[in-house]
Input
Amino acid sequence: MDSIRLSLKKTAMVSVLLAGISAPLAMAAPKKAPELRQITYKYILKAQEQMAEDDYASARQSLEHVLGKVKNSKFDKAAVNQMLGVVFANQEQYDKAIGYFRSALADDALHLPAAQQVRYNLAQLLMMKGQYREGIDQLKVWMANLDEKVAIPASAWIMLANGYSRMQEWKNVVDPAKKAIAASEAPPESWYTLLLAAHYELKEIPKAIDVLEILVTLAPQKKQYWLQLSGMNMSIKRDAAALAALRAAYRNGLFDKESDYTQLANFLTYQQVPYQAGVVYSQGMEAGLVDSNFENLKKLANFWSHARENSKAIDAFNRALELEQDPDLQVKLARMLARSERYQELLTLVANPFDGISEKQQGEVLFLTGMAHYQLGDSRKSLGYMEKAASIQSSRGQANSWIGFLQQDLNNQ
Output
């Protein structure tokens, strides 16, 4: 807002000069600008002095006074309307400023440089007030009337792109946004995000990815750019690039909530890197960003289990079972203890089966208990548990194959 006001104040200074006295901007204009009447010049000068002292009320009175005296002179009237527009703009009465700027342009009386300045200011105010279509139209006329030796500034291109974006005319956003970026030595981040939005809305995902790759270099500390880069790569099956973006966010220390860690850990597992999934998830827990609750500990145990890190998986399962008695988890841990040959721990675990254990699970627990006793050198106890396991249909076949073996083993003792 302040920038517009400053710009308009500057306009006020320039407009007087353009009214009949030479000025740098007027050099590109038609050879001779119409001359103001003496009375008009006098009051405009007076209003300008009043504005310089921030006395806008007096400046307005001066201009309204002279406006009534120059109704028959299109050029004088346009010049006074232009100045009144500036006065109201500086008082933040933008609707009135717009009205006077429109009036200044209505009769095509201003010579080109002055008209151009009024048109640009009008376009700015129209955009600011949400009158995007007219703002765009005025801005395009302004662009068309620029001297061919004068490059359209980046600020004008981005204003045009913003106007189209507010009307969600995304196809029209891309070109001016690109031109704004190209015309600027250091385009601000927001210009790239505008271009990104346009490509995204147009479903031009590869082009959106190109913009995001610039944004992550401009603002590597912003997690959302990395996550968007990952998500868009994932959407077009560029899994390696998607994973790389997520890992970059993680390595840059940008993860700040549980879902970040869960997303990366799941993706790592999907990409057959379960060990890294366990590392990431563990670090999230250690940082206090992943809650060490029953479900998350089960998840961590599964990451370690997929990575064949049995010791770490067993530790996570045990921590989970300390929080909640879950028959499925109890049996799963029993299997893992058996695979890890940690038989004594297995026997301790299954000594008191949890409530709700199914018959099938009971059969498996009896079989694993029998196997543990055998491995610990007690074939007789092993046989007893195998016979109990054989009484349950789901574990009968497996148990029977051990019963014959154990009976023979006992006979040979």
